[in-house]
Amino acid sequence: MTKTRRTFPESLKREAVEQVLAGTPLRHVAQAFDITESLLGKWKRQFQDAGPDAFPGRGKQSGEAAELKRLRDELARVTMERDVLKKALAIFSQPTK
């Protein structure tokens, strides 16, 4: 029997973490949200480490990952432009017959 992986919305994660940070015992919050204590502890660490960028979800990227993607895309574009200019230079510098 296979289990399906549960997913949790960002709002639920933030609400659970806020309750823990407000002083509610981790065990009580985990029971109230029907999640394991270890998962809630992981969410708490993620929130403390990343702050507002915590819980990026599917398709969203953290600030550094988004910047890295932008730079890679720009590098690919500039490399393509350079290669096109090299080919054009090679074509136009051939002697005419």
From TrEMBL:
InterPro entries, alphabetized: Homeodomain-like_sf, RD_transcriptional_regulator, Transposase_8
Domain of life: Bacteria
SUPFAM superfamilies in the record: Homeodomain-like
Protein name (database record): Transposase
Species of origin: Vogesella aquatica
Top-level taxonomy: Bacteria, Pseudomonadati, Pseudomonadota, Betaproteobacteria, Neisseriales
